[in-house]
Amino acid sequence: MIPRYTLPEMSDLFTDQARYATWARVEILATEAQVRLGHVPQDALRDIRAARVPRAERVAEFEKERDHEVLSFLAAYCEDMPESSARWVHLGMTSYDLVDTALGHTLARATDLLTAAGRRLRGVLVGRALEHWDTLMIGRTHGVHAEPTTFGHKLAVHAFAVDRSLRRLAAAREAVAVGTVSGSVGTYALIDPFVESHVCQALGLGVEPAPSQVVARDRHAQLLQAVAALGACVEQIALELRLLQRTEVAEVEEGRSSAYQGSSAMPHKRNPTTSERLCGLARLLRTYATAALENVALWHERDLAHQSVERVILPDSLCVGHFQATRAADLVAGLRVHPDRMRAAVDRTGGLVHSSAVLFDLLGEGAERERAYRSAQAAANRTATTGRPFADTLAEEGITLREELRPERFLTHHDVVRRRLEKLDERED
Length: 429
Fold this sequence. Notes:
Elements: H1 8-11, H2 16-37, H3 42-50, H4 56-66, H5 69-78, H6 83-86, H7 95-131, E1 136-141, E2 144-150, H8 151-176, E3 178-179, H9 193-203, E4 206-207, H10 218-244, E5 252-253, H11 273-294, H12 305-333, E6 336-337, H13 339-347, H14 355-364, H15 369-386, H16 390-396, H17 415-426
Parallel strand pairs: 3-4
Antiparallel strand pairs: 1-2, 5-6
Helix pairs in contact: 2-3, 2-7, 2-9, 4-5, 7-8, 7-12, 7-17, 8-10, 8-17, 10-11, 10-12, 11-12, 14-15, 15-16
């Protein structure tokens, strides 16, 4: 992923140097197990532990001669060891015992970072939802005024969506945090299963129960679908805030630094650029999730068609998802809210937003539904056409209001949602 949409704590996990460091760790752990089994001398383990992780540049030099990254890594890793020790490195293993086990460890760490960013986003949403629980605003369906709600309720919807995404990420982490050290077609023909158990336990990984030669790729597809789902939840937040920032609405505004400049030509512009960027990144995440599904089906025990795809989509998905969740939390935390504009929008249509309450009261008084609906609708149409107050046009239809048209009436049972939100804020993951 390009640096613009990457945070260093995530991107550092996916550098070539980080990958080779993890590979070296797997090789050391495998040798430890072989020593315990009596297959490798203790002196060899000492030399293998003491060997430096090869520089990525050195591996690349070897790869020009070998055209095989794992063999090139092993050559670079072993070049300073005594031959008597180097001969025991990678004993009984195949390339993807190393690659996939190390990958499972890296993906678990990356998912933990993404989860932490998602938890922060959820916490910011809950906090601001409670802050604005009573901030009255208009609800919109189909982009059109519906009934009153509050800005806090709107943010609560997004908080629960992010919470569901965190649960999906937890399941996906369990799925990808596995390894296999089982040999060329996964039958443990030349390696004792104890080696796999020792390596995976030390790395905090589960074991692929029926390995072929690789870890099953539906696991990685599950992770990228979970990342894409979180991205879609962020997109929903960002899209909502974009719509609320339109000039004719202007109910919220992204926080701005003193350096902000919205347009190269129009100095007055204050564009929702952060929200727009978050929406765009969600499109990438969905594309990566589709590519991960394409990687599930491999020929027989394995082929190499998935590898080139994964080198792009796995680091990019996690880097983008992490960046997106982090910036979304920043956006919500710094959002400027305009309650006066929100209340003005509730009142803008002269009371039309109360039509459902009027109909409800008429039905409660025994009116026939179709007639009551048509009478209320006729009054609403006149208000929409003439701009006269809804209460006046209702009177012309012979409808007497049971009580004053107050938007707070729609929030009578609103605290039931608040209590659910407070429980969400208190829950430990």
